[in-house]
Design brief:
By secondary structure, this protein is an alpha+beta fold. It has 18 helices and 13 strands. The strands form four sheets. Strands 2-3-4-1-5-9-6 form a seven-stranded mixed β-sheet, sandwiched between helices. Strands 7-8 form a two-stranded antiparallel ribbon. The chain has a two-stranded antiparallel sheet with strand order 10-11. The longest helix is centred in the N-terminal third of the chain and has 19 residues. The relative contact order is 0.14. About 6% of the residues have low confidence.
Length: 470
Amino acid sequence: MTYISTNSLRSKFSAALSDLYKNEVPLYGKLIELVHDTNKPLLGPLSAEERARLSQERHGAIRVGTPDELKTLARIFAQMGMSPVGYYDLSVAGHPVHATAFRPIEHAALLINPFRVFCSLLRFDLIPDPEIRQLAQETLARRNIFTPKLITLLEQAEKDGGLTEASATTFVSEALETFKWHSTATVSSYEYERLSDVSKLVADIVSFPGPHINHLTPCTLDIDVVQESMISRGIPPKSVIEGPPARLCPILLRQTSFRALEERVIFENSLTHSQTLGHHTARFGEIESRGAALTPKGRQLFDDLFDQARATEVTSPSASHVEIEVDGEGGHRKEKVEESANVVHQRHLSKFFAQFPDSWERLRGLELVFFKYEVVEGKSPTKGTSLEALLAAGCVTYKPLTYEDFLPASAAGIFASNLSKEVKVTSKGTPDQDGFEKALGKSVVDPNEIYAETQRRSLEEVYSHFGRAL
C-alpha cells in the first residue's frame, strides 16, 4: 500500500487551514494580499526554491487546556512530520501558559514546507484563585476537541506507518474541526467574566468547545513596509514590530499583527435555560519576517542588548513629534511631523543593536550565526583545503540558516497586544519545562542542536568533496 509523505500531508493541512481562516476572518485575506504585494517587487534575488518556500511559509497558533489535548495534538502533528521544538515561557508577560512549536526539523523538509504551529498549554498552577482554577479544570474536563473519526484515522496511521491519499484527505478535514471557531461558549456569561477577570487568555482557552486557531502568519520580505501599509488597506496594526530592529543582515524573527477582532458569542445559562449575547476578542492576523539563526554565543549577545533596550524604554512606545528641515516656497524652514510609535521604538532598539555586528563575514568570524556551507562546482583549491582557504579560493560559499523558531518576549508581546492593552514585557517569568514535557509525554527538541547539526553536516559534505575529514 502507498502512503502519502509527511511533507505532502503537512502541505495539505497548511493550505486547508489557510483557506479555513480566510473564510472565518476575512481581514486575514486582505493581509495575505498586502504581504503578496509587498513581496512581489523583492523576489528578484531569490532562488526558485526560496520563492516556493516563501509562498507557503506561514505559522499558526493554538492554545489548549489539558495534557491530554496537548499529547493528542503532538500525535497528529507527528503524522505531518512536525516535532515539538523549543520551550517557551509566556508567564514573562503574566500569561499562565507555556508552549512549544511543532515544526519539521530536517533541513530538506523545511525547504519543502516550513509550516509550524505554536501550541500553548494552560498552567493551572498560575491561576491564583482556587474557585476559578476549579471552574477551568471542570469545564475543560467536559470537552473533547477531537472528532471520533480523526482519532480512528490517527490510530490506524500509527499502526500502519502512514496514511493513503484518500485517508489523508479525510484526516485533514477531520483535523480542521479542532481548529474551527465556535461562536457558542461552554460557560455562562457570568463564568466568562470571572475567567476574563483572571486573564483574557484563560477565558479564551476555557470558554469554548475547541481551541480555535487564534492566528495565522504569512512571511514578508519587508515587515516595515507592511507595518506602515496596513492602515491604508483598512487593517488596524498593533503599535510596534516585535523583535530586533531592521538590519543589513536580518537576525532571528520580527513580528507584527493586526488587532484582534471583537466577535459575537452566545452564552448558555443552564440554570435558566436562556441565552445571552456577548463578545470575545482573541483572533487576529500576524506577519513575520525571518532572519538568521543565532548560535548560543550570538543569542546571548542578542538577549543582553535586547534586555538593555527594554529596560531603558521607560514607557510603552507612543507616537511623538520631531522637527524636520523642509525646502519649499518661502525658503528653508522647519516643520513638526508625527512619528509613529513603531518608528520611535525601532530607533530606540537600533541604538543598542549598533553593538551587534552587521555583516555576514563578521557574524561568521565571530561565530554568532549558524551557516550552511556549499561546494561551488567547477572550482579547485589552490592553497590548501582548510575551510578558510576553500572560501578564499571561491570553492565554497555559505548562507545563514534561517531561524525557524520563536522569541518568548515577542510571542508574549503579540499575545498581550491582542488580548487587552499592549503591555511592556519585563518579568523573568516562572518557567517549568519539566512540567510541560511531562504533559507532552516527551522531551522537546533543542533548536540549537538542530542548527548545529545542519551546519556540521554541510561542513562534512564540503570536506568529503575535497577528500579530507571534518
